[in-house]
Design goal:
By secondary structure, this protein is mainly α. The chain has one domain. About 80% of the residues lie in helices and about 0% in strands. Helix 1 crosses helix 10, helix 6 packs antiparallel against helix 11 and helix 8 packs antiparallel against helix 9. The relative contact order is 0.23.
């Protein structure tokens, strides 16, 4: 498990996304999905808090994406309350396929652009929140939205830090009220954070040495493999 947290921290520090996806891909090989989700609560909260508070674009991110954040907050809390009571295979497969399509389109040169409209923010926010509530992974729709907006690397990092922090708070509360997050698991999650932080710092250093074009390509490649993983989980 220590290796899982370390690798996940590197992914998060480098891309600004991917900690839950990378960790869930490995943790679910040895523990149940609900247990794996609860173990990630503290690392998700702390790394996104750190990512957002250290950004130069905090006010801009809040002003630009508060509607998206509100949609994530409400939908992820409601969904996570019932995490143990419904199947997630169809949703997981659907999001995985969408991730793969977007990744391949971006990597072969096709891009779509969207505006800052309320409808787009509500739509992506609800999809992100529902996915996050059942799997702890709500980064794909958020990152798809931000890439389609065409923002630069540093604003991407700031916006994802804000939006993932907004989602992590209701996820933790939903898991607690749903009886999944116990004090013992919370302590274990805190230990996982220590390992994640070492990897997170390494990822940040690597990110500072990569150009905008390579950064976007790295995000899209990460999307592809996350999508394949989600489809595999849904099918099997």
């Amino acid at each position: 498990m220590m290796g899982t947290f370390f690798v996940s921290g590197i992914v998060k520090g480098f891309l600004g996304i991917g900690l839950p996806a990378a960790a869930m891909a490995l943790l679910t090989l040895v523990v149940s999905p609900t247990y794996a989700i609860s173990l990630l609560v503290v690392p998700i909260l702390f790394t996104n808090l750190s990512q957002f508070t250290r950004s130069k674009h905090r006010a801009e991110s809040f002003k630009s994406y508060w509607i998206l954040g509100a949609a994530i907050l409400v939908s992820i809390f409601i969904t996570s309350l019932f995490i143990a009571s419904y199947p997630t295979a169809l949703l997981t497969i659907s999001i995985g396929v969408a991730m793969i399509i977007v990744a391949l389109n971006g990597l072969i040169g096709f891009k779509f652009n969207i505006g800052p409209g309320i409808g787009w923010q509500l739509g992506f926010g609800i999809v992100s929140g529902v996915l996050g509530g059942v799997s702890s992974i709500w980064s794909p729709p958020v990152a798809m939205y931000l890439i389609a907006r065409g923002i630069d690397k540093e604003r991407f990092i700031s916006a994802t830090g804000f939006l993932f922090l907004v989602g992590a708070l209701p996820l933790a509360l939903g898991l607690y009220f749903g009886g999944i997050l116990t004090p013992q698991i919370l302590l274990q999650s805190g230990f996982g954070l220590v390992i994640v932080l070492f990897g997170f710092r390494i990822g940040e250093i690597l990110r500072g040495r990569v150009t905008q074009a390579w950064f976007e390509k790295a995000v899209l490649i990460a999307f592809f493999f996350m999508g394949v993983r989600l489809v595999a989980v849904g099918v099997f």
